[in-house]
Amino acid sequence: MVKRSVKFKLTIAYDGTNYSGWQLQKIGLGVQQRVEEALAKIFPSVQRIHSSSRTDTGVHALGMVAHVEIARSEFKMAPSKLSLAINAHLPADIRVMSAVRCAEKFHARFDATGKQYRYVIWNHFAMNPLLQNRAWHVGLPLDVKAMRAAAKFFVGRHDFKSLAGTRSYEMETTVRTLTRCDIRRSGATLTVIIEGDGFLYKMCRGIAGTLVQVGQGKIGADEIPKILATKDRRVAGMTAPAHGLVLWKVFYGGKPRGRRDAAEGGKSNSTFSHASG
Amino acid sequence: MVKRSVKFKLTIAYDGTNYSGWQLQKIGLGVQQRVEEALAKIFPSVQRIHSSSRTDTGVHALGMVAHVEIARSEFKMAPSKLSLAINAHLPADIRVMSAVRCAEKFHARFDATGKQYRYVIWNHFAMNPLLQNRAWHVGLPLDVKAMRAAAKFFVGRHDFKSLAGTRSYEMETTVRTLTRCDIRRSGATLTVIIEGDGFLYKMCRGIAGTLVQVGQGKIGADEIPKILATKDRRVAGMTAPAHGLVLWKVFYGGKPRGRRDAAEGGKSNSTFSHASG
Fold first, then answer.
1. What is the ipTM of this complex?
2. What dihedral angle (degrees, nearest 10) is formed by the CA atoms of B34, B36, B41, B44?
3. What is the set of domains in chain B, with CATH numbers?
């Protein structure tokens, strides 16, 4: 039997400044909607795309992944032209960076084995005008050594309940495994690179906000294990603003799928596992 | 005798997207005007600031330098608060990054011994939405090895007439010394770092455009010496668009002041020596 549709894995980049996040929330325009509209202009039967992740209002992405099924009867172009065709119908602040044929069983969310987020901080008394809407402006000097010491405590398998938004409290498990939490410094720019098997709602911004408060001397680096153990959002630092965060990359296959392969994993919590940022 | 004014060296950053360059040209708003207006709100007697450089419409800066003289009778704040005070009167796309007392004889333009520009290229078929107005989108793959080979030929003391805008033809000399012309690659981002004792009008953009055409195979890397020798703008590559260029840094003292210290130097051509980009 001939398959009636072809499936593509799309990698999507966007400047989140003018959108109410990836997925349509209560009000406003979501990036997802714009991509679906662009696809529907070329392939009228396309209605939904399925993404690896959600992002909040103002959060950016360079490597959001989504899959789409296109009716074979409608798909008449060379597959290599697909991303150019979609981009022709998108505003300049959203771009499909790649579109590749994928297996029929590929699922952008369920097959994701890990993600990398980057949080950018501009640490100088005056904001860099070229990083407006791209970085969090922290005016007073940060103790980067202390921040690095604190960041190490986040790596590994932990219950991240105290770092995430309260929406995560309804979830079956708030345990996640971080494989990386580094801080790169280049002049006044600090980039927190956070990689893990899954992220709770606002978890990256909770980590970035807590690290900054460590850098300001408001929280001791050695308090992080205690903060994690408390499992109470009120004990950790602030939630960093959305506009410093970028969904950098989504991993498939190559990276260990810690949480979901492990005992408490399974589809039951994957509904929320992509409600990240 | 007590000096009646205090002099400050300002380092200014701006997103050039919404300005008609640094200095007011025929129409539109210049960044300089905005800075002068902000200063005049705090110190009514300030009318003019004097800058190291000019930049064209759309060109950005992280390290534009200007000096300003402020009447001592008007200057009542702690000097350390000056940049914060000016920034309070500036739009978010212009920021004073530092303001330091300087010697009475300091001149932002005449004392500059060198400048560094950076030209950013995004080399991928789809533009990066986070680099809109920040990088030149070059869609087809570039041969970076050939570009690096070509870049080496620009380093040293040359007549750059064939790389600069025709406005430079009126100048006494079009000889300049480049101390650096490197290409950094990070993923799809190429950054051309150009450092020299002075720049002709549109010279950086001429170099960047020529290097891209070398990367596209339209110009051979080994043709650069011939292009320089011809001293004819028509033989070099295109002028790269303004929005990829950033005036990164202006040097004082530490770097050799090749051209102006040398035989053909002098104030006669310094009127144009800062009309760069």
1. 0.88
2. -160
3. 5-101 (3.30.70.580), 114-252 (3.30.70.660)
